[in-house]
Each structure stands twice: as structure tokens, then as C-alpha cells.
Amino acid sequence: MTYRVAVSSTDGKVVNRHFGHTEKFLIFEITGEDKYCFVESRSIQPCCNNGEHEMQAFYNAIEALEDVQAVIVSKIGEGAAAFLESKGLTIYEAPYPIEPIIQKILDEKLYEVDKWRFHISN
């Protein structure tokens, strides 16, 4: 079984974008064999526009991430985090280099958390 993680990064090396300002997610796939790989990049409309939140942009983001189980961002507001979690996503607020974060998910087998194993459709 595989799990997908969406990472908010502008340079592909560091998690450096706030969820509301994210224009592109990097999608990584984690396999049960303790391996991961980059799959693709996905563009989305930022959910925050000059401090105003656009609900349609939130729904569009959920649609773009429909096959993803977790999101890694540098920062996320409480409302956005609650919305994503209500859609079945796990949120990691981790403004660090991407590789060690994904390695930590692998090492600690965080992908085996029940809500991932029994993931409900977004």
C-alpha cells in the first residue's frame, strides 16, 4: 500500500510556504517498503488572498489533493487545519528540509496511523 504526501515548497528542498499562500504542492509517495519518491508537482489557487480566505479555493485544494493523505507546510492557520483534517488529511507544520521530514515519517511509521490506514475519501 502507498501513501501520498503533499509538500508546500518553492524550491523542492525546504518546506517554506504557508498553506494559504501555497501555489504548488510537491507530491511524494511513501511505500510500505520504507521507500519514497517524488511523483509530481500540482498547482493550486492560493486559499488566502490579502488576508481574506476564499472557500472555493479550499474546496479546489481538497480536490487537487484527493489522493493525498497528509500535507506538510511551514505554517497553517487553525481554521484551514481544521478544514483539511475534517476532510481526512493529516497536517504537519514543519518548516524544515523536505528529505529529513519524510524520513522521519518513514522511521516513525507515521503513515500507519489508523486514520491513514482506514482513510476516508476526501
TrEMBL record:
Domain spans labelled Dinitrogenase iron-molybdenum cofactor biosynthesis: 11-105
Xref: CDD domains: NifX_NifB
Pfam families: Nitro_FeMo-Co
InterPro entries: Di-Nase_FeMo-co_biosynth, DiNase_FeMo-co_biosyn_sf, NifX/NifY_domain
Official protein name in the record: Putative Fe-Mo cluster-binding NifX family protein
Organism, scientific name: Ruminiclostridium sufflavum DSM 19573
